[in-house]
Amino acid sequence: MVVVDAESAGQRLDNFLLRQLKGVPKTHVYRIIRSGEVRVNKGRAAADTRVAEGDAVRLPPVRVASRPEETAVATAVPAREFPILMEDEHLLAIDKPAGVAVHGGSGVNFGVIEQLRRARPDARLLELVHRLDRETSGILLVAKKRSALRHLQDQFRERDTGKTYLAAVRGDWPERLKVIDQSLQKYLVSGGGNADGERRVRVVAADHPDAMRSITLVKVARRLVDASLLEVTIRTGRTHQIRVHLAWAGHPILGDDKYGDFDLNKALQRADARPGLRRMFLHAWRLSFNHPATGERVELTSGLPPELRQFADHDAPV
Fold first, then answer.
1. Is the pLDDT of residue 299 over 70?
2. Which residues touch 240 (CB under 8 Å, ≥6 apart)?
3. Do 309 and 174 share a structural domain?
């Protein structure tokens, strides 16, 4: 049994455990959370549960990795810096590229945060404030102080931040559809290289026992040929929210390999496709929040990466 102290309060459960169980493979940490072997105040808890000071966390017996190959994996994390949009003594805002996970786990050995820590060994603390899907590019916040982490995470939780994405979707988005208010449910599907199942999300009725109310605002930025470039603002930060909501509306994101139009995606990936698109067209474009130390409103913008800008400027998806 471990009792959460003041310094650890506000952390996600998975991050808390990764620091408590040093040397235990991340895949195993996520497995014991999903299986219910980890208990918080005698109850089951999800990986994204925030622990509070005084919480009693029960840990099952675990074996610390000591095999040479596991040590090799731990030391194989490459040091990497990412393009910086803003940095001070409290926080770091980076421009995350597509194809890079924000953290290791679930079959991924390392991500942005592990590479940053390796690149900055003298940093006292580097913690993710929020997350982006692996194939989503754009603005990602990292806290450099525990107080900043708690302050910023409170803002995300209380919806005091402004988060707008750019997404290119199939077809002509209807001008009248400006608000999507559809509840979502997480579920697992077998396969995907994960013995415990692959995480997916779907739209469900508001009275479903696992329903999470989810609100997405949509504005047409530009009409493309057989496609639309959208400014998408989320009022709730659910897993895969934008991807599922836009697909539910009949206009899936181009390049989305989970909820998209798979035949269209293949056509866009062909070598002779003009323009071609070999990734999901979803980019965390704009983010606003109150600075954790000064309280001043911060507005950050990340321009479209070259491959997405080239696609949008070509004005035709196929």
1. yes
2. 133, 184, 200, 201, 258, 259
3. yes
Quick count: other Cβ atoms within 10 Å of Cβ 218? Answer: 24
Do you find a cis peptide bond into 275, omega within 30 degrees of 0?
yes
Query: From the candidates 14, 55, 95, 133, which is the catalytic residue?
Result: 133
Asked if the structure places residue 309 within a domain, the reply is yes
Q: What is the structure's pLDDT at 106?
A: 67
CA–CA distances in Å: residue 183 to residues 24, 121, 236, 245: 36, 42, 11, 9
Range of the domain at 54: 1-76
Distances (CA, A) of 9 to 21, 118, 227: 17, 24, 45
Q: Does the annotation mark 133 as catalytic?
A: yes
Domain boundary among 37, 53, 76: 76
Report the CATH number at residue 188. Answer: 3.30.2350.10
Total tally of structural domains belonging to the chain: 2
β pairing state of 39-40 and 43-44: antiparallel
CA-based nearest residue to 33, from 61, 4, 62, 13: 13
Closest CA to 150 of 5, 2, 288, 12: 12
pLDDT at 127: 94
Q: Which of 35, 57, 76 is the last residue of a domain?
A: 76
Two tokens at 278?
A: 């070999």
Q: Are residues 64 and 169 in the same domain?
A: no
Same domain, residue pair 49 and 177: no
pLDDT for 261-291, tens place per residue? 999 999 999 988 777 899 999 999 999 999 9
Average pLDDT on 66-76 reads: 51
